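User: Please run a holo structure prediction.
Assistant: Happy to. Please share the sequence and the ligand.
User: Here you go; the ligand is iron/sulfur cluster.
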Amino acid sequence: MTTVSIDSERCAGHGACVTVCPDAFALTGDGYAELTVDRIPEELVELVERAAAQCPERAILLAAR
Ligand code: SF4
């Protein structure tokens, strides 16, 4: 299982993650990213990995469990 978290200290609110994977990320009213899923469904893992790779702040942390 893959888990994901966002380092809120690093997130600068570019929104790239939302563009890449809108099924797992959203922007809060403040313009920063939040997760919309607790666990990443298998079909979203590739997109979430791509979002993490494209985050300019390296704020998306993935862990395999
Ligand atoms: S791409 Fe990274 S810095 Fe931008 S909103 Fe998403 S988590 Fe935050």
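The chain has two helices and four strands.
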